[in-house]
Amino acid sequence: MGRPKGEAARSKSRPSSSSLAASLVPSGATAVGFGGYVGSSRVDSSLASTPEASSFMNDLDGEMAQHLKRLSRKDPTTKLKALTSLSQHLKQKTAKEIVPIIPQWAFEYRKLLLDYNREVRRATHDTMTNLVDAVGRDLAPHLKPLIGPWWFSQFDSVYEVSQTAKRSFQTAFPAQEKRLDALMLYAAEIFLYIEENLKLTPQSLSDKTIASDELEEMHQQVVSSSLLALATLLDVLVSGQFERSDLDNMIGESKHAVKARAMNVAVSSAEKLFSAHKYFLDFLKSQSPAIRSATYSVLRSYIKNIPDVVNKGDMKSLAVTILGAFQERNPACHSSMWQTVLIFSRTYPDSWTTLNVQKIILSRLWDFLKNGCFGSQQVSYPALVLFLDTIPPKAVVGEKFILQFFQNLWAGRKLSYFSNGDQLAFFVGLEECFLWTLRNASRYCDGVEAIYSFQRTLVDTVVIGLLWHEYLLAASSKYQDTSFSETTISSSKCSTEPVDKESRETFNVKYPADYEENLGKCIIRILSGIHCLKHDLLLVFCSTFQGNCLDLFRQTERSSQNVEWAVKFLILLDEHAVQKGESWPLVNLLGPTLKESFPVIETSDSPDSVRLIVVAVSVFGPQKIIQGLISADLGTREFFQYFNERIIPSCLREVGPNASRLDLLLALLDEECFSEQWNAIIMYLINSEQVGVTPGTVDNNKISILAMLIEKVRERTRKHAHLEGSCSYEWHHELLDSAALSIIHSFPPFRKSDAHFLCAVLGGGVEDDKVSFLSRNTSVLIYEEIFRILMTFMLDSSFIWVKNICSLLSKRGNYSCRGFESSTNVLEMAHFALDILNGSFFCLKTMNDETELVSGILAAIFIIDWEFNVLSVTKDENQMGEIEARLTFCQAIHIFRSKIYNQFFESLSINNRNSLGTVLVESIKCIIFMETKLDYERIISLCCQWMGDIFEYFCKDQFEEQQLLEQLLTKNDWWPLWIMPDNRLGSSFKAENGPLYASKNTLFVALLDKLISRIGFARVIAAATSPSLTGEPIRDLPTNNLYSSRAWLAAEILCTWKWLGGSALHSFLPSLSEYVKHSSENCLLDSIVSILLDGALVQGAGTGLSPLWPASYDEVQGIEEPFLRALVSLLLTFFQDDIWGKGKAVSLFNALLDKLYIGDTTNLNCLRILSSVMSILIRPLSIRLVDSSVSDECDYYSQSKFHESVVDWLERTVSFPPLNTWQTGEDMEDFFQLVISCFPIKATEQLQGLKQERYISPVEKELLYKLFEKQRQHAGASAVVNKLPLVQRLLSQLVVVSVAYCWEEFNEDDWNFVLTRSRFWIESTVVMMEEVAENVNDAVSNCSSSNDMTDTLKKLKIAVSTIDPFPIKLATNALLAFSLFCGLMGLQKKEYPENSNPLRIERWEVIKDRILEGILRLFFSTGVAEAIANSYCQEASSVVASSRLDHPHFWELVASRAIESSSHARDKALKSIEIWGLSKGPISSLYALLFSCKPLPPVQFAAFVIISTEPVMHSAFKCDAASLVKGDTSNNEGPHNPDISSEGNVRLREEISHMLEKFPEEVFEMDLVANERVNIFLAWSLFLSHLGSLPSTSSERERMVQYVQDSINSVILDCLLQHIQLELYVVPGSRRKDVELPATVSEAATAATRAIRDRSVLFCIESLWPVGIEKMASLAGGIFGLMLHILPAYVRGWFSDIRNRSTSSSVESFTKAWCSPTLVTNELSQIKKASFADENFSISVRKSANEVVATYSKDETGIDLVIRLPPSYPLRPVDVDCTRSLGISELKQRKWLMSMKSFVCNQNGALAEAIRIWKSNFDKEFEGVEECPICYSVIHTANHSLPRLACKTCKHKFHSACLYKWFSTSHKSTCPLCQSPF
């Protein structure tokens, strides 16, 4: 890969510097180059022949020498590998081993820096870094050959390479001083190396055969880097860009001498280079932009550092080159070019006289500007104003030069159109140049008149002729179909030819989107500058603007788009001038314009003519605009008078179709006198003496105008509702109410304006329209009248079901129908009502609490719509004439109802949806059961469609759908025919049914069959969720009695057998089979079979199936007895479709055999049906049975008498039939009860664990397990679930004792049985308790203000009385079993093989979570019920809470399991309750349990634990956003507070805030263990726990603490003292250990200390019950300690307000003895651990003295503050003292001292955080942030905010809190400093 070494290659090598090489050769050594090279040739042979050379070579490490040798290869990959390997060796070798290779490395280093491959160069510097790091100071003797290349490499054109080079250089010289020393010491070498590089040519650059293009590129890189290195070196050595402090620190004459020598060397070397290279001008001719840019940098450095280097003789050539550099077209060179041009022009101003300025400079400059600076807009435009400043005034012809400058600058703007940065740079540059020219006009003109004339010409030409003209063109270009009038355009032109020419060329230019806005901003900034400079010049533009606007207003056509420019310009004026406090836009510009144009606007009805003044009003305000119109100062009274006398009549006298003058009227409404203005408008349009006297007496014309006005108000309000600070005016007026009621109570005929007006004042035409112009009562009265009209129309119907539903609606809301004389009047009134509904429908959403009214109107709409459907399918041509008019209105209702989106119904409250759904479902039942002359086939299809619509509109989830289905399926006189559902007993059977009932029943079953085919079997029969409702796959509802109730429905349909359009055989059974095949459902089938079997046993059998041949469907249809026919057809379907197998056949067979005999008597009915059933069961029963066996691995114990008895009882009980087969108990119940009593259960404290009470022998265990196994196996295999309470009770008890005593014998099936049964029993109770909660919700929600409280309480008692104790008993046993299971999970008493442990957690985790979810639902359901009741009244809450006291053990178990539940289970339970949709949610339920009026301690503790832990904690305190909108915000008492909002204030939930904020005074009089006290303490414990869990630096914590300071009275601390009883506390005067504290004080002291240490009072809550004096004292002490820790400033404020000296002393002594030591230790520890990582700030802690020393130093100032914590911290304030200060005035020292005191005293939290905030305050002050003039602090001591609210006059900034306090105390809203209005 290489080529021959030696002399043969010397001709191609780069010549080396002989002088440099000679200087680096050691004394007495041979003249050989580094690394064994002479020049570039190795002299290995000759060098090796000498002893010295041999010694030198022997010192080299062999591997490193080999790698150095490989660096000479041509291949870059080889070089990179060699450099990498060499770097690794350098890291591993010592300095002594590396030093010998440095000379050879220096030679290779110089060559590698010129390598073409950038990676090679980068790796070279990495290797250099490793070498420097390894050898350290030993590099010094070898710096001469290295320093030049090293410095040069730091300016490599590749950024990564240059950075790597700089890192290596900084590694060698870490200190800046050392780097400067090196450069000064070796300045000559560096200059010499640079000179060599500049002399290089591409051919002499390398000794390798390299492509010419690569050589050229390498040469350009070397030259550009060398030039940059030269420029920087001059800056460093001559100008001294290193910090002067470094030079000043050089001590000794030697360094000064070095510095002087370095500067001399630099100057002389630089001058030589400057002269030798002919001022570097040849480099400016290079094709490389990098070389040209570097050359400009070198010239700039020479001119800056050695200005004398340029002599007068060479000035002209340099001036031509530099000042004429604008022909440089590469934007990469422009930055350095501009620096050179500017410094040259500034340094040599006389150079302008040496050349032809017009030819050499200006012509090139004009070309440069016209071409948009050749792409360097963002660099060049900012430099233009600097360039203008450097031009000698005499060098140019002033006015001509300036005008040409702006014209050429303007011509280049097009190239900046499509880059936002370039565009902004252009406008800023133009603005700066123009304003500079105005200010410096005296440079070019003599005399005042000449100067003004020149300035006037500039304004005319540039501002008006260019900028404003362009703005008008840009505005017009957006509307291609319109253009400005010639007058408008011409009035804005300049008289100069180029501008006019360009305007014609660019008239059709398409401008960028933001160009117009940026141009407008530029114009406004220039106008502001003109106004500040000379007011008369501004009037020139104002005159042009006024003329443009007048021309605009005089146009009659196509002005809608033209007005946009004026509107946008006003908006820009507002943003960039008016809001900054500038007055000229109104005084000089807009005021005179509007004054001239207002008469035109006032007489015009064009929207566009009014729009400008409307926008002006929004910018300047109504009063200022009116003042401008009449040119007089007006007060509020005069303004209102002018508005009333002039504006109202002119705007309301005649209103055209556009009604634009109404916009002007509304725009002039002022906030200060809005009420008077609005009243005047209403009084003008409504005659208060006539309205309300007689219905329909309102003036038609004026009511029409008023309707249009209100619509505009509504539109305006909706537009500005989202804007911050928008005024929310009170638009309601009593005359509007009177007019609306007058119209709604009038009689036909009606005017169009009547409905128009009512729709306008009601609102609700669109969904987001929520502005009301009527009182709520008036709105309700109007809709009640609409409801009466609709009911009157319904009563006129010919259908019975419509009239019945109308009567139902009338009775529900106690609404009477409206009477009319004729059907014609009824129809006209109905159409009138529909018109109102069409225009105000969404107003109903605001009346969600008017359940009967809203649901009634919607129900009427649906009923009329359905009547239209019925009329459409049952048309009778003979009656069409009679019903045509009615049908037309029904059709209108149908169209109206079709427009209502589903989202509207979903937005209704659950009460409205439930009520509406109930009415509509009842309507469907009325059609089926009451109408007799309809086409039922079509009607049934319609009813099915309507039911689907009801589900879609009114059901948000599966539960609501199932509720409506339950409503549909409720029993009546006709339905059901065969089976009567009973929630407790499952089902019962009717004995007799008439033929009329049967016919109605079949119609209803036909509807159900249609419904099943429409929405699915799962939703109707199996009560499963629907994908269309939730978007999820079908899943089952939680187990509840819906299964049994829907099982009865399936049985009813099967017994009906045939109906209109279908039958059980052809439609229902196939649907059932298809469902079961795709579902794991078994309970439903078991329940259906159980019902049918029970019915068959009751009814018996007549004829049945023949046993001689297999059963068939044809034969089944011959069975007359409905139950037997249904049962046999069902079983036949199950077995034929392989749904059931052998197990089900066996279980069903066993069930029939068990029921065959009762004692010695045979059950004849069972016997009669057995043969029919066996004909189906015989085939699956013939399959061989497989018996299961149970292994016994236990030893037997010795027998005892008791043991024998128990064994005997067990054996006898085992001999009994399985529990599931029992029909009656007989004497078997007693034996079961006896056996169960022999196996008691022991519970540990608080039911956290359960275990067996006694030891049992293996025989007992075997028999007990056998008994359990028998029940388990039979129950698992049986198709019949015996629901006898006795059986369930005994089985649940058996399960508990079996789990307790035989759990070691259990296998997975056993555990599965236990958990499945437990879950079933628990969830049965869940369903019951949730039904109770729903009943409570209904009772409370449906009560109205007129209802007697006694009736509501009675309903609540009835709802609570439905709690069946039997399911609770079963659930109690299930909870015991589940608790045992949870305690046993994971317990290993045996060695199980791998994966054989039946109690492995992962096997049961799912069902365990399901059970826990059910338990949590129990917990939440009772809480929700109490929360709902409590929202009604305290007595109602007591009714619900008392129900728990009847079953304390059950709720204790529920609470214990709830505490142990996982966060995942809690989260799911929370979501389940939220989805439930009751009026109260899960958080409210927890608070209801916690603060219950009839508390149950375990439940209270569980509620506390759940609230104080995740996932509840994060949402248990702060209320949602919707609840924040409370209270009346219209009270504006006190001074106006601008920009001070309550945003960020904390609003806690009502349940907790009520306890914290509203501390009742009567609590002090209550007993110390009163429930109210307990609840308040619990609330504080919760709140403090939550506050303590928040990070100390979090904003939420700060808001919480501020909430405590602002909203919570400290009286709670007085209440705590009552419990601690400090009056009994003996202040310890000595340290006697025998002093015994009183019990309450001792408990409180211990709890306080522990609470501070643990930051929690959970230990107090856990042991609180039963509540006692000492336990309450313990809790009070814990809360006191926690408050001292978390809210020290809050407690300190309370302590300072204590006036009783004895109380104050005892509190301080108690705190000092039991709280302060721990608190002080914690504080000092936190301060010591805190990280105040800052070189300006340090902290030291003196624990022995309880002191903290804070030292802050900045520049040459410093202060030491000592913070001393008092012995009774935090009751006494922290003492702060200044022990040392440096360079700080006494005033500032005192201010800083007070600042520290404020921070540490106001901090509610850790002291370390207060110190950190104080430090931040100092930092901000040193950064230049102004302090608040009120509190004299940068950071607010309480909320830690910065001063942000600035006075528009004096510009001082204030904290919002300080300003609010100032306004509140001073009772005025003026600036505290300048007293101007804020």
User: What oligomeric state best describes the polypeptide chains here?
Assistant: single chain
Task: Please give the alpha-carbon distance between the first and last residues.
Answer: 83 Å
As laid out across the biggest beta sheet, the strand order is: 11-12-13-14
Q: What percentage of amino acids are in beta strands? A: under 5%
Structural class, please? Answer: mainly alpha
User: Overall mean pLDDT score?
Assistant: 77
Q: What coarse outline follows from CA principal-axis ratios?
A: globular
Uncertain runs are: 1-58, 241-253, 479-507, 723-727, 1025-1044, 1183-1200, 1388-1395, 1521-1544, 1628-1634
The count of helical stretches stands at 82
How many strands in all? 16
Helix content: 55-70%
Q: What radius of gyration results from the CA coordinates?
A: 49 Å
Main sheet: strands, sense, barrel = 4 strands, antiparallel
Textual characterization of the structure:
The protein is mainly alpha-helical and 1878 residues long. The protein is built from 82 helices and 16 strands. The strands form seven sheets. It has a four-stranded antiparallel beta sheet, with helices on one face. A two-stranded antiparallel ribbon has the order 1-2. A hairpin with a 3-residue loop joins strand 3 (979-982) and strand 4. Helix 26 (515-533) packs across helix 28. The longest helix has 34 residues, at 1308-1341. The two termini are 83 Å apart. 42% of the residues are buried.
Task: Write a concise synopsis of the structure shown.
With 1878 residues, the protein is mainly alpha-helical. It has 82 helices and 16 strands.
